[in-house]
């Protein structure tokens, strides 16, 4: 009986300890910075709890370019999709473009679009049984006229990109759950699907499903919310997307970082090598964060009738907002239209320039124009009304031009069957830009102005003295070719964008010759100027 009080006291301590343990905050609620958070927000999922870190998954981490965009290594990324998610993707693609491998696209992988093949009865970017909107001509990559005329190529594409499905990402020994995965692209998307290859461009969004899975709210991938993975379609070298972005940045043009990845996908049948991809930094994610003083401004992805900037064509649909989408305000773009088409252009050029420079980073555009004209790029402004972004920096209020989608660059024209460059296809701008019509007023109006034309020639000179030196480029081409060759050679039929491995092996010599030819052409052109 004398031990009963001691026993009751001991039981009381045990009950209190159990209660306190149940109320204690789990260790997972401590962030890398030592801040307490709810368990759900700190750990993406139970499966990912063991390797969740603020630096790799957290929203406060700075973008880690050394890990995500290495310049001297090929990263590996593994993507796991449920059988249901994979089926949903394939079903959606079949609804857009017909049965896979039925040659309803633009031809074989590696073939640059430059018109229709024998199997096409419709414009290249219209799915079967899909009619363009009333009054909007179909936009096919081959639907433009020589000399920089937009021809039919003014309609909005918009038939690419699938819905997001959930995926699990494994990289660098870590796991990310409930990540958004979707196919992306326009003509390259349709062409890849129709050719039968599984190597298709895609995009990852690491917090796409945060509403359904609050644990992934603001989930990041070493500081990046989204990353685009390009399949290197229509590029037998597999390095154009990479080296063109590098050339732009070295020349002083805002451009995305890029890196090479070997991609493995498991959709219920085991991990399958999908080939060598180029990862591209998303403009409205980290490009504006790291290359501008203020990342709170409007980002636009122009495409369609208004994207050529011809008079009277502004419409909101042509300037899809990637940021601040809830704010129905396009006043920055409308101000650019007004300044560009002001009557002062002919009556008072100095006043016109001042008005334009008050709303548009003219120097940035002319610098882009000089570099882009040297490298030759037929799938961009001046031939096609797409493949660029616009960003309005709140710091100075100026709209800045940002290039995008570079796999068609470094070529003097289209590509014939088998991935051969120089075949039928798009036209490229001549160095004097004389053939560019006023249907592309951002080029024509600026180059008709002596002050801006002199600036253009200055940037041509600076580019060949810096970013576009043939010897330096030849070394870079060889470096990246050697880096990716083992991964390209492992690509298998049905998981490649190459028509032949020989085309890949010959690509460095072709690119190096192109660089030398373009360098000499610029030297000759500038020498002939007054």
Describe the fold and architecture.
This protein is an alpha+beta fold and 530 residues long. The chain has two domains: 178 residues, no CATH class; 237 residues. The strands form three sheets. Strands 1-2-3-4-5-7-6 form a seven-stranded mixed β-barrel, surrounded by four helices. The protein has a four-stranded antiparallel beta sheet with strand order 9-8-10-11, with helices on both faces. A two-stranded antiparallel sheet has the order 12-13. The N terminus is likely disordered.
Detail the topology: elements first, then pairings.
Blueprint: H1 4-23, H2 39-42, H3 54-57, H4 65-68, E1 74-81, H5 83-97, E2 165-171, E3 174-183, H6 187-195, E4 202-205, E5 226-230, H7 240-250, E6 258-266, E7 272-281, H8 283-291, E8 299-302, E9 319-321, H9 331-340, H10 344-347, H11 349-357, H12 362-375, E10 388-392, E11 399-403, E12 414-416, E13 420-423, H13 441-447, H14 450-465, H15 470-489, H16 501-527
Parallel strand pairs: 1-6
Antiparallel strand pairs: 1-2, 2-3, 3-4, 4-5, 5-7, 6-7, 8-9, 8-10, 10-11, 12-13
Helix pairs in contact: 12-14, 14-16, 15-16
Quick summary:
The strands form 3 sheets. This protein has a 7-stranded mixed β-barrel with strand order 1-2-3-4-5-7-6, surrounded by 4 helices. A 4-stranded antiparallel sheet has the order 9-8-10-11, sandwiched between helices. A two-stranded antiparallel sheet has the order 12-13. The protein is an alpha+beta fold.
Sheet with most strands: strand arrangement: 1-2-3-4-5-7-6
Query: Which class best fits the helix and strand makeup?
Result: alpha+beta
- Radius of gyration computed on alpha carbons: 26 Å
Number of strands: 13
- First and last CA, distance: 115 Å
**Helix content class:** 25-40%
Number of domains: 2
Beta fraction? 5-15%
Q: Helix and strand succession?
A: HHHHEHEEHEEHEEHEEHHHHEEEEHHHH
